[in-house]
Amino acid sequence: MERSERIWLGILALVFVAFNAVTLSPLVPWQEWLLWSKPTPDRTVRVEVADYQFHLPPGGIEVRAGEYVEFVAVSRDVTYGFGVFRPDGTMVFQMQVIPGHENRIVWRFDTPGTYDVRSTEYSGPRHPEMFVPGALRVMP
Amino acid sequence: MTTARIGWQAKWTLRYAVAGLLFLALSGFEGILMRIQLHAPGALHGMEQALNALRPVGREPTSAELYYSMLTAHPVVGIYGFAYLCVMGAFYFLVPYLLQKEVRHKALVPVNFTLQIVGVLLCWGAGFFGLFNALYTLYWPLPVSYDRVPLVGSIVFVVGAAIIMVNILLFAYNLFSTVLGTSNPRSYSVGQFLRAAFGISRLMRWLGKEDKDAPNLDYNGLPVFIVAVGRGSIDTVINAVVLLSAGALILIYGLAALLRSPLNPAAVDALVYKNWFWWGLDMVADGNVLMYTAGVWYLLIPLLVGRRLFGEEVVRTVILADLLVSLGVWSHHLLGDQAQPFVMRLLSGQFITWGEFFTMGLTIFASLATIWLARPVTFTPALKFVLGSIFGFIMGGVAGLIQANVGLNLIFHNTQWVVALHAHTFLLTGLGSLLFAVLYALVPMLTNLQFRSQRLVDAHFWLWMVGAVTMAYAMGMAGARGMLRRTLYEGTLYQPYTLVGLIGSLILAAGFVAFLANVIATLGWRNVLGLAVPERWLSRGAEGV
Q1: What pTM value is reported for the model?
Q2: Chain B residues with CB inside 8 Å of A17's CB?
Q3: Which of B23, B123, B343, B415 lies at 20 to 30 Å from A112 by C-alpha?
């Protein structure tokens, strides 16, 4: 290996270490609880999905800002996605909802407001209908 | 150009290329239609109604059904129609040419050509006529959920896919058979080939144990292009075998349903299936594409700039690393699956995927260093597109590494970022440009004709690059703003992005038209059409390719 290749390999290694260190650290906010602190959830929200429908708790999902909420999603037929979106369409988080498994993720909402839920995985031609505006309310 | 000037193999290579380009046109047309529908739902209603007359379904399908059927066929046409046909045609010429021997089983050359077209058209027909809409991902149990996907369409699709996969196995067999054939002093047994491919012989030497049965430890003496084709084709075989097994499973469920004895989809674990399926499918996306691309760069660049490849011994090792890395990266497609064990997501999905950063980083370094050290170089059409392809793999690769991350994937998974900025940049700017570079290099070699118009070459290059980057960037930014792939939106939330994406795709298409015009101007209509007719018809004409 020539000297220039060794220098280039060193640069690649530096980029590898820097990018992975940053993105695994709490500089990516949700890594703080998903990867490092792993808190006991303050609340569990169960979501069932079947026949293109989200079956949410009666009255929708209501949580408090700053608390850790565990979402447990199960599918009764095919693979769906469970995605939470802000009113401007940007995504807060998502997970795949695989049938035959309990799909879990813990989240902490810092900003009070109303959020939408949308399936983030194609499940058949009626997939675009799987949008529930204002399904999740975060109280101060 | 007369029939006497061009050999049998060269003629078939041109046929593969022309058929591949026709599939690119079809795939591109589908892409534009889908971009129109994303931008303005309902804009295609008139066309949909007219085409519904051709569909043997007893009801009027919804726009969403038509969209998702097209979305299912689109990647099959683009990858297994365009890319694979062009790769097959190029390799069927280049491998024997570089090894100075003939293709081992010449009869398979037209068979591969025919079966690939039949398989792709069956898959396309399953979508267009049969409304099969489970997408290329075929996530279990969607392809056997017959309340969502049509039963007959599902069966036709998997039969088409099976034909493609069997055909790819035949092609790989012919390639391996040609390389390993004993008609050449540099021949290998299958065992020697596999040991060298996976670096076993090198490992044994490193451990102080000489592998006496492996006289060619790293295919020394073989062109580095052949090494890349050999190792890449191992992934090609794995891909075909895995997808065949998935297709067989879907077919069994389909036939059982057809015989009114439906099987229980829950008998197959959706997560295990998804791991198996993505492990095989990823042998294309993160396997043979990277090795074949590297091999073509290693072959073309020294030829185009007139200098020996920089760091050839290193790149032989890099190809080995590429093969090993490709076997372990599939979990980056399951980073959104919280049910997937975390250690798998972190190691396979993120860290091993970064192995491609090293292998592609070194590959691109060797390629660019070769060009740099050969200055001054002439920027021939092929060299321009080689540089374009390197740019595409850098841009698409960086986007891929950002999403292949256990943290960032939570907001990128299944968004337009993934499919536009990563996948389409890889496929159109990266792989597409590379295949154009091969065509710009091969057509003069095969026909003794230079491309007619330099202006059309430049128009092709800039329109293709600007269009592809505009489309990918606009849709990638839409993805960063939360726009999902595989989702038809109502309302105007993402319309500015979809409009720019649509404009980009039209610019891209204009570049492709410039290329086709140049090909036809160079070869002549008669010769291009002559590629589509049987051999015996050609002999009757005075001239033909």
Answers
A1: 0.93
A2: none
A3: B415
